[in-house]
Structure formats: C-alpha cells, structure tokens
Amino acid sequence: MSKNTNVKIERKTNPRTPVLITALKEGARQNEVAIWRDVAKRLEKPGRNYAQVNLSKINRYANDGETVLVAGKVLGSGSLEKAITVAAYNFSATAMEKITGLGGKCLTIEQILEENPKGSGIRILQ
Question: Which whole-number Å values give the CA distances from 40 to 25, 74, 84, 93, 98, in the listed order?
C-alpha cells in the first residue's frame, strides 16, 4: 500500500482564527444559538473567501442603532449615514474612522460574542 501524499490539510496561518472558531462553536453550544455556528463555518473557509463589505453596503442594509456582523473585512468605500455597531474579523483604517466618526462602534467578533452571547439583534452581512 502506498501513502497518498497529495492530501492537503487546511491550517490557518493567523493564530487568532482557530481560537476564534473554537470560541464561536463553544458559544453556540452553551447558548444554543445558531448564529455563532454560522459565523464559525464562514471563518473555516479559506481567507480569500472571507466577506469584504463596503460601508455603502452596510449603509444600505442596516438600520440606525442596529448591530451588523461581517465574517471578514469591512472596507471604507462609500459613505455611512447612520450610527451603528459593526462587528467584524477585520477593519480597514478608513472604515474605522467613518464608523466611529458618526458615533458608531467597531468591535471584533470576540468582543460581540462576549457582549451579546445570545446573538440577539445581530444582522450578518456578506
């Protein structure tokens, strides 16, 4: 029998990612909510497939005072006219400036998981 050397094992290069995925799955089990498992599955995909959401899209789909989650990066293209809380894996510097400039908040996914373990009132954008 010969060994198959063509099998590729997926490993995340960013050490933060597997820790976050594990925390999300644990949060989903403890609180019996599917939103965290959904976000974990999105982050298990290759990084090149992570969502990249512009502020113009967030502005279009989010209501004032709402919490939006992006399983990827928030980009600063477009304008934002509402004060909202945005949780994401990563932010561009421009996006952070525009969100906080209007009185909104930029949170990591770890922070939103800790603040809102039930995941209520969160809209996922991709």
Answer: 7, 17, 23, 24, 27
User: In sequence order, which ranges of 32-107 are alpha helices (DSSP H)?
Assistant: 34-44, 55-61, 93-101
Q: Is 1 inside a domain boundary?
A: no
- The 10 Å Cβ neighbour count of residue 2 is 4
Tell me which residue range forms the domain holding 21. 16-125
pLDDT in tens, 14-71: 899 999 999 999 999 999 999 999 999 999 999 999 999 999 999 999 999 999 999 9
**Which CATH number goes with the domain that contains 69?**
3.100.10.10
Task: Name the CA radius of gyration of the chain, rounded.
Answer: 16
Q: Please give the model's pTM, rounded to 2 decimal places.
A: 0.88
Beta bridge partners of 105: 85
The verdict on residue 11 lying in a domain is: no
Contact 44, 72 (CB under 8 A): no
Domain count, the chain: 1
